[in-house]
């Protein structure tokens, strides 16, 4: 009887999990699909039922959003900023995480604690101090050269993105590096490989699943970031989230909804494509671990 009761409980638990996952999937898929369908509707179709399928494919919405609303320029800025930020982040975080997780040296515990403390700093709270600091530096540069450098600069924004993501990235990579067996490092040392060769040829390929997770998470963070981009890019070099809100305000005032939803699709599409590409490796990285040697 206890066995029968246990089977019944397990079945109910599985049903609950499946129903919950199905509800979550529906709550995500329906709004996304609705935005995609709304992006190809003509403006007159929005005055009927919001759930009605489009009469045809009105791609003029994307043309207006991409060219007339300058979403193409904003897309290019976001691609440049995100790519630079990821490069800066990986160049800094990978060696730092490897050293902090695999070597014993004086001050290691303090540095690890310092990195973990950075996890509790919200970027929103330090946006204004960062802006004031860069504004002061920009004023000094303008006094000497007559032109600013630190504001409305895509490389500076990418550096700040990478800096704010360092604590999380180093913490995640360090945790993964600690699970990798030391046998490979010992074999490489016997073969005469130095620390750099061991890191680049052995440890980084083994940590590829974790690196993919870091790249995807930080891509989403950088791609969708709004507050720093709005604060530090007051000129023409706006990123997609800032440009999208400008587009939403303009099109809503003009009662022109098609380009507004087309702009949303332009923002979402790169994220969906990247997720589809790395989906298998992402799942593998979340489930595969190492065994300590």
TrEMBL record:
The keyword Zinc-finger does not apply. Pfam families: BPD_transp_1. InterPro entries: BP-dep_ABC_trans_perm, MetI-like, MetI-like_sf. It is found in: Cell membrane. Residues 75-278 form the ABC transmembrane type-1 domain. It is a multi-pass membrane protein. Its main location: membrane. The chain crosses the membrane at residues 12-37, 74-101, 113-135, 155-177, 198-223, 260-278. This is Carbohydrate ABC transporter permease. It comes from Paracerasibacillus soli.
């Amino acid at each position: 009887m206890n066995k029968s009761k246990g089977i019944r409980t397990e079945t109910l638990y599985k049903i609950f999990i499946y129903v919950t996952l199905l509800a979550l999937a529906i709550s995500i898929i329906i709004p996304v699909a609705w935005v995609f369908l709304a992006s190809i509707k003509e403006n007159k179709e929005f005055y009927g039922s919001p759930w009605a399928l489009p009469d045809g494919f009105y791609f003029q919405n994307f043309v207006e959003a991409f060219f007339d609303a300058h979403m193409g320029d904003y897309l290019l800025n976001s691609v440049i900023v995100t790519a630079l930020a990821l490069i800066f982040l990986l160049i800094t975080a990978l060696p730092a995480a490897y050293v902090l997780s695999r070597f014993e040296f004086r001050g290691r515990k303090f540095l690890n604690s310092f990195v973990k403390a950075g996890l509790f700093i919200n970027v929103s709270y330090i946006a204004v101090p960062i802006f004031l600091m860069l504004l002061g530096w920009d004023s000094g540069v303008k006094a000497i050269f007559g032109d600013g450098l630190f504001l409305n600069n895509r490389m500076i924004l990418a550096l700040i993105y990478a800096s704010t993501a360092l604590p999380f990235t180093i913490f995640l990579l360090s945790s993964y590096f600690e699970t990798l067996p030391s046998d490979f490092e010992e074999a490489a040392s016997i073969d005469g490989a130095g620390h750099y060769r061991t890191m680049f040829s052995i440890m980084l390929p083994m940590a590829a699943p974790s690196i993919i997770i870091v790249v995807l998470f930080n891509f989403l963070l950088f791609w969708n970031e709004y507050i720093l981009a709005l604060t530090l890019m007051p000129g023409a070099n706006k990123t997609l989230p800032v440009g999208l809100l400008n587009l939403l305000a303009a099109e809503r005032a003009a009662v022109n909804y098609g380009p507004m939803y087309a702009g949303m699709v332009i923002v979402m599409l790169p994220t969906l494509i990247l997720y589809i590409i790395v989906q298998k490796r992402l799942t593998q990285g979340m489930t595969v671990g190492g065994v300590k040697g």
